[in-house]
UniProtKB/TrEMBL annotation:
GO terms for cellular component: mitochondrial inner membrane. It is a multi-pass membrane protein. Its EC number is 3.4.21.105. This is rhomboid protease. It catalyses: Cleaves type-1 transmembrane domains using a catalytic dyad composed of serine and histidine that are contributed by different transmembrane domains. The chain crosses the membrane at residues 21-43, 49-75, 111-131.
Amino acid sequence: MRRVMFTYFTSDPSSKALCSPMLLSTFSHFSLFHMAANMYVLWSFSSSIVSLLGCEQFLAVYLSAGVISTFVSYVAKMATGRFEPSLGASGAIMTVLAAVCTKMPEAKLAIIFLPMFTFTAGNALKAIIAFDTAGLALGWRLFDHAAHLGGALFGMWYVTHGHELIWKNREPLVKAWHEMRTKNTGKGGGGRSN
């Protein structure tokens, strides 16, 4: 049985931060190799995703992707009766990969150990989605295929539709959040004033 190297923390049941285990799982890995592979992919695609989205939007998308892919993994594991840890790190990395491959489908990619074989980013994304779909359908336990699919689908959706729906319309949400925090601070609700 594999040992979880970096695991997420469980939240206090009375805590208002119900998503904290899913958020913290964004930084969880099964092993040093798992972490090294994820960090290599993130390093490889980070300049492209930051140039597409900007630093702030990238951070928001990355953290959201970790929560969403962990949730998808939880749902898939509950449906199949497999009760193993769900780690959102790979799902968040898949979001980055899928977002870049969706926006730049003709970009040439290669595998680190086989640099002589190149392929387009669009074909790589199709192959990854097919592999993870097969893994989920056939019950493979090689990777958390549900988290990978959740992350990939979120990345594809975000760069095609989510940016327009969410990021460009964030000002009213930020203003409402600020007003809510200011109102809670005035009532002694524990909020912090800036």
